[in-house]
Design a protein that fits this description.
The protein is an alpha+beta fold and 333 residues long. It has 11 helices and 12 strands. The strands form 2 sheets. Strands 3, 4, 7, 8, 9, 11 and 12 form a 7-stranded mixed beta sheet that branches. A 5-stranded mixed beta sheet has the order 2-1-10-5-6. The radius of gyration is 19 Å and the shape is globular. The structure holds the ligand Nc1nc2c(c(=O)[nH]1)N[C@H]1C(S)=C(S)[C@@H](COP(=O)(O)O)O[C@H]1N2 and molybdenum atom. Molybdenum atom binds at residues 97, 154-156, 250-251.
Length: 333
Amino acid sequence: MTSDLPKAPKSSEITPESVYFNRRTFMKAGLFAASVAATAGVYRQLNRLPRATKETARLAGLDSAPVVDASLSPDTVRAFHSDETPTPYQSITHYNNFYEFSTDKDGVAGAVGDFSTSDWKIVVDGMVSKPTTFDLDDIRKVARPEERIYRFRCVETWSMVVPWAGYSLRKLLDRVQPLSGAKYVAFTTLFDPSRMPGQKSDVLDWPYVEGLRIDEAMHPLTLLTTGLYGRELPAQDGAPVRLIVPWKYGFKGIKSIVKISLVADEPPTSWNRYAPDEYGFYANVNPNHPHPRWSQATEQRLGESGRRETLMFNGYGEQVAGLYKGMDLDKFF
Ligand SMILES: Nc1nc2c(c(=O)[nH]1)N[C@H]1C(S)=C(S)[C@@H](COP(=O)(O)O)O[C@H]1N2
Ligand SMILES: [Mo]
């Protein structure tokens, strides 16, 4: 896959020889997780990570206990965590899609170099009462990041379980007070070919753009993501701030965001523009709607050797199916 998100992993890429689909790693992780709850301590042992320093924990926003939001239903709160074994940190950070750096999933981590996020700004504008430019300190002050352990499903059929850190995007949107005419939210990645060398090639139209309907953006599961495994988000996973929408295919999770605009009309999205028959605006995980070139019925969890069945809405139907009542999910794929 050079100029294309397309093809499902070849079986040669997903044999147990591959470090990302290593059976022994999975079995070790599985046995270990069976006996202990998923805590930071478990992560360290699973991944042989040094204990996060106070500073890295503060930057990831995990320095204090999570706040219980009484306005959320128990069904929603339950979806914030998963009992499934988290995918090892090494895999999450060394098997990436981030075309601004490389189209080679194994090559992104090595291509990010010393990508710096200092002086980062995120402009939130458009149809809002209070257009605001946030720096990273401002972003951290909007709300305390929480850990969210979500399933993640790439449209190419690989998947993982990830302990992200962040807070519901709606907390940021509430700050700028969307106007009633705002029906969609448009997101934009940094454009700077000197720092993102993949942007010197024309594999995609730069900058990468994505979008959500306003009710999707306001859903409590939609995560403004600032951390991974209790530490800052690494560059290859979309530092300093990315989007995670766990019931949608991974490409909706736009990385390294510099702009969030509230708009009246459905905004263009990078992969839809590239191949409109293959990648829809909605991109809800749907095992019954095949990609034109491969089935979406099953997936390959990083670390496992077999395939498992893909779940409608990636298993978050109870929380989000109501957003799509009356919509033909095959037509609006
Ligand atoms: N800006 C930007 N965001 C992006 C991408 C990209 O190439 N550029 N790739 C998308 C795709 S296809 C996937 S599957 C996820 C991968 O996230 P990960 O590398 O952290 O697993 O990021 C998404 N966000
Ligand atoms: Mo993807």
